[in-house]
C-alpha cells in the first residue's frame, strides 16, 4: 500500500479532484446518466427523486434528465436500482451488478434471511420450507409478468399476503406481511431489483423486476474491484471512510487495499489512500463552480470524515437526526448552504458559510437554481428525509 515518503494532499486538492471526478465543474458535465453513474460508482436510490436530481446536476443538457434517466433504468437497462452497500438502495451501472452482489450483498442477504426466519419462527409462522415454496412461486410469477408490484404478485401467489406479529409484547410490536419482508430479502440476495415507479419520477411506489443475470464472483476479487473503482472516483479516502461507505469489516478493507496495491498519502490529520499511480498533483477545474445537490447526493454522502468540504457547525441545519444529508449548496468544493423547493415550485437557497463567498458566487448559485427549476418544471420535490433548513426554506 505504498512505502517511503508519502505525498501530502491538502483539502484544496481534494476539492479539485471532487470537482473533476464527480462532474460538478461545468466543463466536466456528462452527456448521459450512464456517465454520471460510472463516474460516481453509485447513486443513492433510497429516495427516487435523488437519482434524477443527482444526474441532472451533472448533465451538460439538464433538460434530458428525466427522459434519459428513465431510459437507462427502465428501457435499456444500463442502470439498475438495487440493494448494495450497508443494505441501502443504490443505482449502479448494470455492469457492476455482479461486483456489488459478491462484495457486499451476500453477507447482508444471509443476515437478512436469517432475521426473517427467526422473526417468523418466533411468531409461530410457517417454516423455512414453506417460505422457500412461496419464494420460488413468487419469482416464477415475476418472471412471467416482467415487472409487478407486491400486490400483483400476491394475486398470483396468495401466500405472500400472510401476516405475522413481529416482536410480540414489546413496545415496537408490529404486524409484517410476508411479501414486504421476503421481497426485501430477495433484493439483498440479488434476485430482484426495483423497477419502474407507479407514478412520476419522484414516486416511492415501485414495481419489482427480475435482477439482471450476472456471474457469481469471488468475494475478495469483487471487493478489490469495487474498492478500486470507488477510490478512483473518491480518493483519497481514509480507512474509516472506506469502512463506512462499504459496510465492510476493517480487515476486509485492508485486504482489498492490499489487493489493488493502493498508495498511502498524507491528509490533513491522517492517512488516506488512492489507487496506484494516482498520488500525483491534480490540476484544478480552471474556473469557479457552483452546484445544487440533492438530499443523499453521493458526493455529500461519500465520506464519513467530511470536514474538508463541510464545516462541522453547518451539520445541524443540513442533516437529519439519522445522519442523512439534505439538499446542499456548493461553491468550489465546499458546502456553504442549503436549498429547497417551495410549494409554488420556486427554488430557494440560503448561505450558511460566507467565508470567501462574494457576488460571483451568488450569481453562479442563482444560475444553478434557475437551471434546476428549468427542468424540474411543475414537479414538486419533497426529500424523503427532511432536514431543519430544508423544512424552513420550503415553508
Mean pLDDT: 94
Count of beta strands: 13
Radius of gyration: 22 Å
| Backbone structural class | alpha+beta
Unreliable spans? none
User: How widely separated are the two ends?
Assistant: 50 Å
Relative strand content: 15-25%
The number of helical elements comes to 14
Q: Describe the largest sheet.
A: 4 strands, antiparallel
Spatial strand order of the main sheet: 10-11-12-13
- Using the alpha-carbon principal axes, give the shape: globular
Order of helices and strands: HHEHHEEHHHEEHEEHHHEEEHEEEHH
Q: Fraction of residues in helices? A: 40-55%
Describe the structure.
This protein has helices at residues 11-21, 33-40, 48-56, 65-75, 97-122, 128-145, 150-156, 178-188, 219-234, 239-246, 250-259, 315-318, 359-376, 388-394; strands spanning 43-44, 79-83, 89-93, 163-166, 174-177, 192-197, 206-210, 263-267, 270-274, 290-293, 328-331, 334-341, 347-351. The protein is an alpha+beta fold and 395 residues long. It has a domain at 95-210. The protein has a 4-stranded antiparallel beta sheet. A 3-stranded antiparallel beta sheet has the order 1-3-2, sandwiched between helices. Strands 4-5 form a two-stranded antiparallel sheet. A hairpin with a 5-residue loop joins strand 12 and strand 13. Helix 5 packs antiparallel against helix 8 (178-188). It is globular, with a radius of gyration of 22 Å.
